[in-house]
UniProtKB/TrEMBL annotation:
InterPro entries: EPHD (IPR034732), HECT_dom (IPR000569), Hect_E3_ubiquitin_ligase (IPR035983), PHD-type_Zinc_Finger (IPR051188), PHD_PHF7/G2E3-like (IPR059102), PHF7/G2E3_ePHD (IPR042013), Znf_FYVE_PHD (IPR011011), Znf_PHD (IPR001965). It is found in: Nucleus. Residues 1-115 form the PHD-type domain. Keywords: Ligase, Metal-binding, Nucleus, Transferase, Ubl conjugation pathway, Zinc, Zinc-finger. Pathway: Protein modification; protein ubiquitination. One of its GO terms (cellular component) is nucleus. One of its GO terms (molecular function) is ubiquitin-protein transferase activity. The gene is G2e3_0. This is G2E3 ligase. Residues 287-319 are annotated as: Disordered. It comes from the Eukaryota. It comes from Chaetops frenatus. The lineage of its organism: Eukaryota, Metazoa, Chordata, Craniata, Vertebrata.
């Protein structure tokens, strides 16, 4: 190694030993990481993990002048950071002399005299206790090779045992072996010089380690199979998808072969039915689908589908903001005379208490979203002008997005450019911002309806073993964080329970029955919850003893009041404990760009964009969004009245374009990002023939016309034709 001068190749002690023949360079990774005079000035794929070759050579020359205080040889590249301490040493020498190296933040190093120590109180029990990893005895002494847990009083470790555990578990699974605490435990161990690599656990990286668990039974076993392509044919999201027995999982049927209309319906094979029938605990019940599989337009949804595009608002929608404008209220104003509302639809001055409360709530929600906008702009300061391009295929949005986010050169602090590779004829007006807005919209819609989440409206994390293995929950959290900071839409589909788990920690959250997505599990819990006698409660528990045993809630019940604690334990298991790994991985992903930290500091305002659907565009919203730039006599320009009247027509469905079309024409986005637009949208009234949407400046240039009808015709012709060309 050019820094320590040793030939040892021990990755556990010195990090990976790397040789670069073209540069005549060999170096231990930890020696390089801990050197005091070098920083990562390059990207991850440049030099040695961001350390430029020229910088490494400069550091070698600097260290050649320094003598190690331990072995007395030249080349000591590491110095103690304590004030006034001038000790220098090689990395291996520092390990032998029990120096401490902190693998975090500035990668500080402390000599044997100034190293951090753990505090031992007088009340600490003296003597020895087993190391909770190797089970050999460890003395309760404040020495270098002994570490105690910051979260458990009786947890003691050998330093070597903890280091091997950290290298094996990685950052996602390294935690206290007694109480399972992660955050507090990791912070203390990093302070005391334990290296926790930022990668998945070693057992997760082993190829095909869980292959046997991922094997699913794929065969139709009903007496008469209706599928012409055979009993082994399986087509997901169709009537020929194979559904397995909910009890044994070793028998299957095509949905059509058992007359099932929805995949969410449960099915039992004949063997399991006969077993339950003989035991007397099987009760035939009507198969029910999830709430998300309700009949829609006379058809039953086979699987949860993306919500349809919001219809235009009817002519009866409130337009009070326009009626309050002195320009619109002026009776001799010709453009507004045709906007008179029917008597049944007029906005009256007196509002019902319910409507008043709703308006209050809506105003509060808007205020919170404005606050979120400010907070996200604070995070956007991290974003640099350097760009990262993502090549996206809209037909396989998830796989192409995953590939882009996982590429080595991807950096969330870079400006993101999106290129839709499956679009052969891209319009010149389709700027990179427009593609980026469209990409994030498709991505959030896919996540909302993916197998990573479950539930109808407010969604919780589901348990998908394949997704856990592929680390998809982390990627989903990372994508949502990047989307929020880079101008994507607000997700809006989190349940309150999921949001509270992310912000306050799962141990401080009490789930509700509404969080259960599985209709059979929900029915079982309801039966227990509403049991009105001890005998009926015990009978119910006997019927579902297997379910209770799987949840770790099988226990003797001696009083009717015991059901409340039992229901609570079942809910905690099914909603929280069952998804501990996905939740932790998802939280780590949300830490990207500091989003989770902001959520924890401002939970109420962030819930407005994560737990509530985005507000539907209205004429009022669009009117407030744009700032009119014109001469000082703007109030005399009829164009301003034409603009507001046109928005009213569009909202009421009296136009061939929608409010989303107008926004898309000007900004390249059909939604208002949580972070807002940059620059803020403006309007200019000019003497031009047709309206112009300048997406680089988010500026809408409008023509000054003599009549409202001329204004409306020019708006609809230009917007409709422009968007039509882009879509083609």
């Amino acid at each position: 190694c050019v820094l320590c001068g040793r030939t040892d190749d021990c990755p556990e002690k010195y990090g990976e030993k790397r040789t670069y023949v073209e540069y005549n360079l060999t170096v231990h990774y930890y020696c390089l990481l801990m050197s005091s005079g070098i920083w990562q000035r390059g990207e991850e794929d440049e030099g040695v993990d961001g350390f430029l070759i020229t910088d490494i050579k400069k550091e070698v020359n600097r260290a050649a002048k320094l003598k190690c205080n331990i072995c007395k040889k030249k080349g000591a590249s590491i110095g103690c950071v304590a004030p006034k301490c001038k000790r220098s040493y090689h990395f291996p020498c520092g390990l032998q002399r029990e120096c401490i190296f902190q693998y975090m933040e500035d990668f500080r190093s402390y000599c044997w005299e100034h190293r951090p120590v753990q505090k031992f109180t007088d009340k600490e029990p003296r003597g020895a206790s087993p190391c909770t990893i190797c089970l050999d005895l460890v003395e309760h002494l404040p020495v270098y090779n002994v570490l105690k847990s910051p979260c458990c009083k009786n947890a003691w470790f050998h330093r070597g045992c903890l280091q091997y555990q950290a290298l094996s578990a990685g950052i996602f699974f390294f935690r206290c072996t007694v109480c399972n605490n992660q955050d507090k435990f990791q912070k203390e161990m990093l302070r005391m010089g334990i290296h926790i690599p930022e990668r998945d656990a070693s057992w997760e990286l082993e190829e095909n380690a869980y292959q046997d668990l991922l094997h699913c039974y794929q065969h139709c076993d009903v007496k008469r199979c209706l599928c012409k392509k055979g009993r082994d044919y399986n087509e997901p999201d169709s009537k020929w998808e194979i559904k397995r027995c909910q009890y044994c999982g070793s028998r299957g049927t095509h949905l059509a072969c058992s007359a099932m209309k929805s995949w969410e319906q449960n099915w039992e094979c004949m063997e399991c039915r006969s077993i339950f029938a003989k035991s007397g605990s099987y009760r035939k019940r009507k198969k029910r689908a999830l709430a998300t599989s309700e009949k829609t337009n006379g058809r039953t949804r086979l699987l949860e589908e993306p919500p349809p595009k919001s219809p235009r608002q009817s002519s009866g929608s409130p337009r009070s903001f326009l009626l309050q404008s002195p320009k619109i209220m002026c009776q001799n104003m010709s453009p507004c005379s045709h906007l008179e509302l029917p008597a049944s639809n007029r906005v009256t001055m007196s509002l019902s208490p319910a409507m008043s409360n709703r308006n209050c709530s809506l105003r509060h929600l808007r205020e919170q979203r404005r606050e979120v906008c400010k907070l996200l702009k604070e995070l956007k300061v991290q974003v640099k002008t350097k760009t990262t391009r993502l090549n996206i295929n809209a037909e396989s949005i998830w796989s192409s997005a995953l590939k882009g986010f996982r590429q080595r050169i991807f950096n969330p602090t870079n400006t993101i450019e999106v290129n839709f590779s499956n679009c052969k004829n891209r319009s010149r007006t389709n700027t990179s911002d427009a593609s980026k807005h469209h990409f994030f919209q498709l991505l959030m819609l896919h996540l909302q309806n993916s197998s990573l989440f479950e539930g109808s409206s407010g969604k919780n994390l589901s348990l998908d073993f394949q997704a856990v293995k592929e680390n998809l929950y982390f990627e989903a959290g990372k994508m949502i964080a990047v989307s929020l900071v880079h101008g994507g839409p607000s997700p809006g589909f989190f349940s309150k329970t999921l949001f509270n788990c992310l912000v306050y920690g799962p141990e401080n959250v009490k789930p509700a029955l509404e969080d259960i997505a599985d209709v059979d599990v929900a029915q079982t819990i309801k039966t227990i919850k509403y049991a009105n006698s001890l005998s009926s409660l015990q009978s119910t528990l006997q019927d579902c003893c297997e379910f209770l045993a799987a949840a770790g809630c099988l226990r003797p019940v001696t009083a009717l009041c015991d059901k409340n604690m039992l229901v609570n334990d079942i809910l905690i298991y099914h909603v929280i404990k069952r998804i501990t790994l996905p939740l932790e991985s998802f939280r780590q992903g949300l830490k990207t760009l500091g989003v989770l930290e902001k959520m924890q500091m401002h939970p109420s305002v962030f819930s407005s964009i994560l737990c509530h659907e985005p507000e539907r565009l209205s004429a009022e919203t669009i009117c407030d969004l744009f700032t009119i730039h014109s001469s000082s006599d703007v109030n005399k320009v009829e164009g301003a009245d034409f603009w507001m009247g046109y928005l009213q027509d569009v909202e009421s469905g009296e136009s061939v374009v929608t409010l989303e079309d107008i926004l898309l024409f000007v900004t390249g986005s059909c939604y208002i990002p949580s972070i807002g637009f940059d620059p803020e949208p403006t309007i200019k009234f000019l003497h031009i023939r047709y309206p112009i949407g300048n997406r680089l400046l988010n500026c809408l240039e409008l023509p000054i016309t003599q009549t409202y009808q001329q204004f409306k015709n020019k708006m609809e012709l230009t917007i409709r034709n422009t968007l039509k060309v882009e879509r083609e």
